[in-house]
Amino acid sequence: xxxxxxxxxxxxxxxxxxxxxxxxxxxxxxxxxxxxxxxxxxxxxxxxxxxxxxxxxxxxxxxxxxxxxxxxxxxxxxxxxxxxxxxxxxxxxxxxxxxxxxxxxxxxxxxxxxxxxxxxxxxxxxxxxxxxxxxxxxxxxxxxxxxxxxxxxxxxxxxxxxxxxxxxxxxxxxxxxxxxxxxxxxxxxxxxxxxxxxxxxxxxxxxxxxxxxxxxxxxxxxxxxxxxxxxxxxxxxxxxxxxxxxxxxxxxxxxx
Length: 256
Ligand code: NAP
Description:
By secondary structure, the chain is of the alpha/beta class. It has helices at 19-29, 43-53, 70-84, 110-137, 159-179, 197-203, 206-215, 224-235, and strands at 10-14, 35-40, 60-64, 89-92, 141-146, 184-191, 246-249. It has a seven-stranded parallel beta sheet, with helices on both faces. Helix 2 (43-53) links the parallel strand 2 and strand 3. The protein is globular, with a radius of gyration of 17 Å. The structure holds NADP nicotinamide-adenine-dinucleotide phosphate.
């Protein structure tokens, strides 16, 4: 008989094709889901992952979306509902980092700021905006938004990234308050430094690597699975009285 921490649920993971989102899809797929949707801009990686982790009783589909594009979300939500008949979990993990988001305040260009906010903050808004009505029609749901410790501590670089993650954090709390009475929980995960394709280049620079390791009391970077397990808890019914919470998974970085 089928069982698991997400037994009988349907989940949508935006940004699910790579890194933390990929690890989340892998962790979720083992927990009794009856449907998993990987929604990502990266078709090649997303389709390959969907094929790999699909299991009997748990179909996994890939949907190509640009999280910054509201029309993609407004079309995705009814499509998922039509296919699976319900949606219980939404993870907003799509995000951008890299050189675009890194300049200091006085070197930040408007276009870079706008694109960073479009994906990292507006993406979570659109995801919630279009999936909350579906969850309401199913009697409730669980949303987990992926922010960052940079919403708590100010980095020396990454101006637009940190600001966008701060917006994502505040947005999560706001949604948590607005929908708590409807049994739609909204929580935030705030990872510290994680080994993913997003950070590969930067963590390969010895100086940055050393600085980031020094900022992390545990003296290492997280693996994506260590973040995914926090997402799994918040997504599951084990967290049935948890909403508006912020789960920091950072090897002690913000405890300093
Ligand atoms: P990642 O490996 O680059 O994965 C992000 C995924 O999102 C990729 O598949 C990416 O596609 C996709 N994506 C990018 N823009 C998108 C868009 N507009 N629409 C839909 N999908 C899009 O990065 P990650 O490190 O796992 O990051 C996942 C989340 O955790 C992000 O929100 C990030 O800000 C956050 N985070 C990461 C760290 C860290 O140290 N890695 C720390 C704190 C928070 P492409 O591959 O085509 O870009």
